[in-house]
C-alpha cells in the first residue's frame, strides 16, 4: 500500500528535502488520520526555504494545536525565523540598492559587446540563472538545435537572443516566429514562404523566414502549439534542410541555426499523441531549462531594483526611488505565476500610480498594485470570454491581431486561451 502524503512529507523532511516535504504536507490536507507536528514541520521547512511569512503562519497554527519539534520549541523557531527574516531583508536591501546605484552610475552609453549586453538582460545571481548563463556560453558556438523550456514570462526569448549573440552568427539576423500566433496556413507561409495565388490574400511571392534568415539564428517560439500536420512539415525541414513554399514546387535550402522554445510539457504531449516523438528528439538536442521566478526568489530584489530604476526614469519620478522592507518582502514572497513579465507589469503599475514627489515605495503601494493586477486578470477572464471569441473569429484566429485589438500583450491572450480551455 502506498504511503500517505503525510508520511512521504515526513520522510522528505527528515532527509532535508524541504521543498518536496512542503508539497506532500500540503497535499495531506485531504487525508484522514493523525498528523503529529504537521504544522511545526511545515514551519521549519518554510524557514529553511526562506519563506518567512509562511513559516510564521505555520508557527501560529502549530502553537494553536500545541505542536512541537524534536529539537526546537516553536518559540525558539519563531526567534530563528525573525532573525532569518532580518538577515534576508539586509541582503535584499543591499541587492536592491546596489542594482540602483549601478544603473544610475552608468548613465553614459555602454561600450559592452552585444554578447555581454544580451547576457546582462538575463538578470539574476542565483545558482539556477548562473547555470543557464554558463550553458549559453558553453553551447553558443555549437550549431546543434537548442530547446529552451520554461513557463510563460521566464525569459525564453532573452536566452535565445543571448545564444545568438554569443555564436559565430552574431553578425547575422535573428528571426523569431511564434508558432501559436498563426493559423496553420499562415504559419506555413511564415516559415516556408508562398507563391502568388497560393491562397486568398497571397497577392505576391513571399520568401519564408526560415530561408530569409540565411545563416543567422531562427527562433521557433511556442513550438508545442503546432498542429500535427505542421509538425510533420517542420520535421522534414529540420531533417532535409530544405523547404517548399506554399503553392510551389521548387525546393529551397535552409542554412539557419535552430533554437526552439516551449512552455508545454512535450514529454506528456508525446505520450498522449499530441506531439511527434521524432520531432521531439530533433528539437531536444541541447536542452536549457529556465526556472520559474518562485524558485529563484533571491533574484527578485535585483529585478525589482532594475525595474524601479527603469520606470522611475521613464515616468519622471524621484531618482533614486527606494523601497521599504515590508514592501520588498511582499514582492519577494509573491508566487508570480506570470514570472518576470508579471513582475515587470506590477512594478510598472506601482511606479506609474505613485505621486511624483514620493521618494520611497511602501507596502500599501505594492499591495494596491497587486490587488489591481489580480482583479484585472480575473475580470478579464470572467467578463470577456465572449469578446475574446468574437475578436478571434474576426481576426481568423490570428493571436497577434487579437492581442492588438484587445490592447493586451500576446502572452495574455495565450494564457487566457489556456485557462479558459478555448480551442478553435
Please give the structural blueprint.
Elements: H1 5-15, H2 18-27, H3 38-49, H4 52-65, H5 74-105, H6 114-120, H7 127-139, E1 146-149, H8 156-166, E2 174-178, H9 184-192, E3 193-194, E4 206-207, H10 209-212, E5 217-221, H11 228-240, E6 242-244, E7 251-253, E8 257-262, H12 266-272, H13 277-283, E9 286-289, H14 300-314, E10 322-323, H15 325-333, H16 339-353, E11 360-361, H17 363-383, H18 385-394, H19 399-406, H20 410-420
Parallel strand pairs: 1-8, 1-9, 2-5, 5-8, 10-11
Antiparallel strand pairs: 3-4, 6-7
CATH H level of the domain at 127-290: which superfamily?
Answer: P-loop containing nucleotide triphosphate hydrolases
Secondary-structure-derived class: alpha/beta
The average pLDDT value, as a whole number, equals 83
What's the arrangement of strands in the largest beta sheet?
2-5-8-1-9
Distance between the termini: 43 Å
Q: What's the CATH class of the domain at 127-290, please? A: Alpha Beta
The percentage of residues in β strands lies in 5-15%
Question: What value does the Rg take, in angstroms?
Answer: 25 Å
Explained architecture:
The chain is α/β, with parallel strands linked by helices. Among the domains are: 80 residues; 164 residues, 3-Layer(aba) Sandwich (Rossmann fold); 37 residues. 56% of the residues lie in helices and 9% in strands. The chain is built from 20 helices and eleven strands. The strands form four sheets. The chain has a five-stranded parallel β-sheet with strand order 2-5-8-1-9, covered by helices on one side. The chain has a two-stranded antiparallel sheet with strand order 3-4. Helix 2 packs antiparallel against helix 3. The radius of gyration is 25 Å and the shape is globular. The two termini are 43 Å apart.
